Amino acid sequence: MTNSYDKGRLNLPFVGIATFGKNPYQPDWSAIEADFAILGAPFDFGTQFRAGARFGPRGIREASTLFSFGHAGAYDHEDDVTYLEGVRILDIGDADIVHTDTETSHANIEKGVRAILASGAVPVVLGGDHSINIPCIRAFAGRPLHIVQIDAHLDFVDVRHGVRHGHGNPMRRAAEQDHVKGITALGIRNVSSTAKDGYDAARAMGDDILSVRQIRKLGVDATLARIPKGVDYYLTIDIDGFDPSIAPGTGTPSHGGFLYYEVLELIDGLTKQGNIIGIDLVEVAPDYDHSGTTTILAAQILLNTIGRIAHNRR
Question: Distance between CA atoms of 143 and 97, rounded to whole angstroms?
Fold first, then answer.
């Protein structure tokens, strides 16, 4: 007896080219036709400690092949929903990075995000260190949005030794943009790259800051209630927002972080109370985790986020 799965190539995860989720590759940025477009931003010159996030996009793509069984979407028995069914995802490759040249590299990332937005797709950007958020947010100029940040660190440094565009600066640069109407920072904890004056400035500029412990005391629903409803969200996920017990492959790990379902439930709630119009996931540095756990986590949370955005929009 045969079934429809027996026809054509089985195309197992370890076979073929490792695009994101083994979805089609489109190198022509003027010909993007998709619901979601994946852009790599392999830039890590903004790091202050361990580099290596330049290999994040490649690692996440390879890990994402684990979830490439695309026969009938991804059925979730808890929700009784088949996610990703009929969702068009394209991988458009990487922005070109010019070594040691932050401004040119960031400009190339911004160009890629603008091309995705012009096509009508949702940009999903694979970092790279967190400084790549700066050109991503610039690309949304003229589109009001609220940033939801999942992170161990506040990243609200203004200028340090003349550096304005490192991975400790992105949320400060974002808050300065007219189209950014607010920031909710979730998971901030322990010793941070931002000093007290940065926290004071963040709150003065409309940043709502919650630690992992505070969120666990509040619960998911009460946490979501603090985030404006019915607006467009930009979601920026620093992998160090997760606990290093499940995400050791990052440059600045911080103990006391989120577990998988805590983040998934927060993201699921966001997709039900507003519209996620852009995503970046940053600071995955595969060389610090030879087990591949961190890259698998990154791929899994992104695919689940894409699935929930698409389903809850319907």
Answer: 26
